[in-house]
């Protein structure tokens, strides 16, 4: 059971919820704060104070006063009118995490909702009722208004959900799980949709997959190095400590750990004086992407525990302040950075693929084919990898540099962070396929060597990968192998296989 406090949710806990289906509950102290902020909202309504979103309209209509008897209608109209999302829905685990993050934000006690709103959100999580939320339609600056409105619809018994593997109307799922739909009162609709939980949930899921793939890139690169009889001198700790980037030093140490005991790698001058950059500069390139991942992780863990709606209620209602915490710029920049970092893992991987398939760059059979000429072997697998990395370059164009004014120019700068998060996730998906192709090619290259000469750690990975896609003896429909290897790399249960080495070995290194 994961206890939500509004302040302490971690990426590891998010992973346990969306991957391990762990149950969630609200901290009672945090719920007391929720009650206090709710009492403040009720006083504001009773006294007829003019406070944005509580007794006024929204956006450009913030100057329109709303009478107390219309507050419920105002909130219902808000949710329905803002549910304009289009396109394919977010993955179920993203939508589930949106519920968790929205509940966690409300538990900070600055939003003025009733405890019942938080409780209903958590009931949906624990009953595995997942809102169907279209991916497109958010500007990422008055919060993720459109996606979160589709989430909020479910709380009132409208919209659609996934429940027990079926797509159904929300009310049918609520009835099945004995969950009473809400009638939203003052500020509650606004508190549910003013926030960055769509971009953050997509960002968290993207980051978790990115981190797993980043670990796998090192093992795959190590296998490629053995397939190409690569030189290990460039991974000497002295080189990396001389530059000073911890992540670069760590990558080099992990590669050497993976290759310890290999009789296929070489030293400078043995086969050649030095390797191409896609081999020699693995620590520098991979290390830089790990730096970016560290930045992204930090920003996500802050945003997961942030109050992002508007207005916010402080000092038990003595201060109600309209601000802009719903603006997604911190996550927009982080998502653009994540996409760029993961695109680079794929870029350098594709170059290593080229070094394995190009007969002018190695001593292996042309295109790794058992019968070059009559058969094309891995020739077109490299084409596929090249197409994927090219697509990634267009997806990596920063979404955060764009802005289109909305709400009659009241909301005149927006983040486009949700677009950035979606693009980052697509880049990660593409990158995994590129790495799958590299793994297939590395396994094939090693099949022409002597697998007995592999390092013990890489041999274990080679054997497991060979069970998924054995070395090919003739041309075949390689698309099937690529997708099979891609699915294998996406399997979260592989964590132990790709963690045969310590996460940071550099502390033991001396010049």
TrEMBL record:
One BP term from GO: L-histidine catabolic process to glutamate and formate
Catalytic activity, as annotated: L-histidine = trans-urocanate + NH4(+)
Record PTM: Contains an active site 4-methylidene-imidazol-5-one (MIO), which is formed autocatalytically by cyclization and dehydration of residues Ala-Ser-Gly.
Sites of 2,3-didehydroalanine (Ser) modification: 142
Matching PROSITE patterns: PAL_HISTIDASE
Localization: Cytoplasm
HAMAP family: His_ammonia_lyase (MF_00229)
PANTHER family named in the record: HISTIDINE AMMONIA-LYASE
Name of the protein this chain belongs to: Histidine ammonia-lyase
